[in-house]
Design a protein that fits this description.
The chain has 157 residues and is of the alpha/beta class. The protein has one domain (2-143): Collagenase (Catalytic Domain), CATH 3.40.390.30. It has six helices and four strands, in the order E-H-E-H-E-H-E-H-H-H. It has helices spanning 18-28, 44-55, 72-75, 90-99, 104-119, 127-143, and strands at residues 2-8, 35-42, 63-67, 81-89. Strands 1-2-4-3 form a four-stranded mixed beta sheet. Helix 1 (18-28) links the parallel strand 1 (2-8) and strand 2. The longest helix is centred in the last third of the chain and has 17 residues, at 127-143.
Length: 157
């Protein structure tokens, strides 16, 4: 079972409900047993600070994933696996959704799924990994009722 700990630091944006965020995160969860993920929703200043500190990119970004790397001996002694932290910048997600002519919920779902896959070891550093991760995202988002997030329709408003 997934325990999603949500710390919403942004009141100025329309953010999906905790129940919806958990539904999306759970859909992307392929681990069994009790799992915990922290989701922190931040402003652009904090997103930029974290992105610069951990990725060397001095700009805000939509989602950052910080997987927990626990030693094997600790893994055996915990009742609940801590997958890691997701940090989402609400204003960046909102802006990107508008720029890409996507529904806000569709883009939020994509960011949750994308981040959850990162926490489980997926990456997009090389082309093969990127293709595999994108295919998984498309499949999961389709199961949630959303269109392919990589198909941007300029005519849809």
């Amino acid at each position: 079972m997934l325990e999603l700990l949500i710390d919403n630091q942004q009141d100025d944006y329309l953010i999906p409900s905790d129940a919806v965020l958990k539904l999306w995160a759970n859909e992307a969860l392929k681990k069994t047993g009790d799992v915990q993920v922290s989701l922190i929703i931040v402003d652009e200043t904090e997103s930029q600070r974290l992105n610069n500190e951990f990725r060397g990119q001095d700009k805000p970004t939509n989602v950052l994933s910080f997987p927990m790397d626990m030693p094997a001996e600790l893994l055996e002694s915990v009742d609940q696996l801590m997958l890691g932290d997701l940090v989402i910048c609400a204003s960046v997600v909102e802006t990107e959704a508008k720029q890409q002519n996507k529904l806000a919920d569709a883009h939020w779902a994509h960011m949750i799924v994308h981040g959850m896959l990162h926490l489980q070891g997926y990456d997009h550093i090389d082309d093969n990994d990127a293709e595999a991760m994108e295919a998984k995202e498309i499949q999961l988002l389709k199961q949630l009722g959303f269109e392919n997030p990589y198909h941007i329709n300029p005519e849809k408003a």
